[in-house]
Structures are given as structure tokens and as C-alpha cells.
Amino acid sequence: MIPKKAEIENAQPKKKVSTSILLGAAFLMATSSIGPGFLTQTTVFTQQLAASFAFVIFISLLLDVFAQLNIWRIITVSGLRGQEIANKVLPGLGVFLAFLIVLGGLAFNIGNVAGAGLGLNAMIGLDPITGAIISAAFAIFIFLVKEAGKAMDKVAQIAGFVMILLMVYVAFITSPPVGEAIVNTFVPEKISIFAIVTLVGGTVGGYITFAGGHRLLDAGIKGVESIPEVTKSSIIGISVTGVMRVALFLAVLGVVSQGLAIDPSNPPASVFQLAAGEVGLRMFGVIMWAAAITSVVGAAYTSVSFIRSFSPVIEKYHNWIIILFIVVSTVTFALVGRPVTILLIVGALNALILPIALGTLLIAANKKDIMGNYKHPLWLTISGGIVVVIMGYLGVVTLIEQLPQVFK
């Protein structure tokens, strides 16, 4: 057992630091999941399903909550990163998981960098490539400062609050049929399995699944005694994601219910412009940039956290490897553009990362050599198992459907 004296002596300082760190971890996860893809997915699906999209949001958030409660808790109680846990469950599995997550993080980060460029274009009319380079420089600066972790937490929180305020404002001025949306949350007129898979994958798929848990671990928050705070942080993260998704959904629903035509070439920008004219377009630019830059930071940080334990050199220079990750994403976008085929393949594989990762961690949760004397709650194991089965099945179906289209 750890000496009680040390725990008592360190209790106060940890308590003061933890509030900021817990919020930072929650917002890192939330803002990582709210990238350019999030804005487009929510807009397109709302166009297709109208008020019934409320049901999709409800189901996806339920699956998100059970996935995150399990993953954050198992990581912090074990004191191990996701790849380390996976390697203990089955040697080599952690390396495979790290490969999938780094590949996915790099591919999607190209899209995040592109989104940041488009955000500055909509905000101040800057050329998208120039905007992407400036945005990448901003992200790199975060990891150059002495307290990179704290800087990252602060940027994620500020960006998250700005996005929430702007989205709620646009949702308010479009006057959506809220009553109809509430009814369809529980009794939908249409159901789209594909939309549910896409939303869950986008919210807790790939690197996003581990963003918050790894951030808490790097900040020194671990052990059974941290469970209440870890649970609170994970729920805040999912709640922030939920508020943003609901606000954007209502904004789009308000535009659609008025019979206004949304421009298919840039659906989310079109919604904001239709809702608030030129000012709305500038607001969209702010939201797009904030969503993209936090996703750039989150993707780079979490992807690199998956290879840190593989070598002392990587551990020592991880901040520089994060910077290299951002540079490679930016250069690829500037020179090649977004590689559509890679994005499609990785997008299909991304649907499988959640069930593989969560399934592995649930096995680990019942291994004494990993978790010590900790007993994982039965209700969490069952709820997590349900998420694994549902997302495993739907992920395979999605993969089978998408791969033929990729190789056409």
C-alpha cells in the first residue's frame, strides 16, 4: 500500500490543480471530436432526416457515454496508456492498435488542417492554403511553450466555449421546431443506422476514444482514488459534445424547416449564411477554425501518445514528434490536398477501432495483473459490452459497404 502520509500531504495541491486538468481533458476530447467532419456530418444528416436526426443524436450519445466511462476509468485506474494495456492483454495488439490510430490520426489531421484554412477563409477571406499554414504554426506554438499541457487545456476550453455560444445563438435565431425534435428523439419517423455509426465513430472513434484518458494520465491523475473526478470529467466531455451537436442540429433544422435551400458544396457554411447573412458566414469561419485547430492539436497529441511508450527516445522528444506530425499533415495538404482514397479507407477502418479498443480494455478490466485489486462495476462491463457488440457489427457492415466504393 502507498503510505497514507504521502497521500495526506499531497491531497491539497492535487485538488487545486485537478479542476483545471479535468476540464482540460474533457474539452480536449470534446473539441477533438468536433472537427470539420462533425460540422458537415451533422448538417447533411439533418437535411436527410429532419427532426428524426434527434433520435440519432440521442442513441449516439448513449453509446458515447458508456464507451467513455469505461475507457477513461480503466486507463486511469491501471495507470497505463491504451496501447500498453492492449499489449498486456495480447502481445502485439497494442502495436496494431497504435498503428491504426496513428494512421487514422494522420489522415484525418490533413482534413483538420484543411478545415482550419477554410475557417480563416470564411472568417477573413484568407487563401485556404495560407490559412492552413498559419493555423498549423499556431498549433505548433502550443507545443513549443514550456507548459504545453496547460496551454493545450486552455486553448481547448476557450475554443469550446466560443463554439457553444455561437452555435446556440444561431440555433436561437433560426427558430427551429423544438417540440417536433423532442418527440422524434424518442419516437423517430425515420431511423438511419449509417448516421448512428458515423456519429459514434466521429465522437469517440479512433484517437478521440483515448484523448481525455491519456491527457489525465500525462497530468498524473491515476489510481482508484481518482475515479469520481475521472467520471465527472468524461461526462463533462460527452455533455459538451452533446450540447454542440444539438445546437448545430437545431440551427440546421430551423433553416430546413423554413424551406431554404442549403448549398451542397459547403452545407454548414450555407446554414450559417442563410441564418444570419454575411455575419453568419463570418461566425461560421470562427466556429470552423476553432473546431479544426482543436482537432489538429487533439489528433497530433493523442496519436503520438500511442507511440510514446515504445521507445525512450520518443518519450523524451514527444513534443517535437507532435510538431512533426502537424508539419507532415500541413505539407501534405499544401502540396497534395486531401487524399480521398486514404481518408475513405481510414474512415472505414475507424469504425472498427472503438469495438477493438473498448473490447480489449474490458478484458483488461478483469485482469488482476493489470488492475490490481480494483473490481470493475458489472453495469459498466455489461453496458460497455453492448457498445462493443453493436459497434463491432455495424462497423463491419460499414466497412464492407465502403471498401468496394473506395476501389471503384
Features:
408 residues; mainly alpha; Amino acid/polyamine transporter I; 17 helices; 82% helix; 0% strand; globular; disordered N terminus
Strand residues, percent: under 5%
**CATH fold naming:** Amino acid/polyamine transporter I
| N- to C-terminal distance | 60 Å
Count of extended strands = 0
Radius of gyration: 21 Å
* Assigned CATH superfamily: Amino acid/polyamine transporter I
Category from helices, strands and their pairing: mainly alpha
Helix content: over 70%
Q: Specify the oligomeric state.
A: single chain
Number of domains: 1
In round numbers, the mean pLDDT is 83
What is the CATH-assigned architecture? Up-down Bundle
Low-pLDDT parts are 1-17
SSE string? HHHHHHHHHHHHHHHHH
Put simply, the count of helices is: 17
CATH C-level class is Mainly Alpha
* Net shape: globular
Transmembrane segments: 21-39, 45-69, 89-110, 122-143, 155-173, 193-213, 234-261, 281-307, 319-336, 342-365, 377-400
Pfam family, one: Nramp
Subcellular location: Membrane
Membrane topology: Multi-pass membrane protein
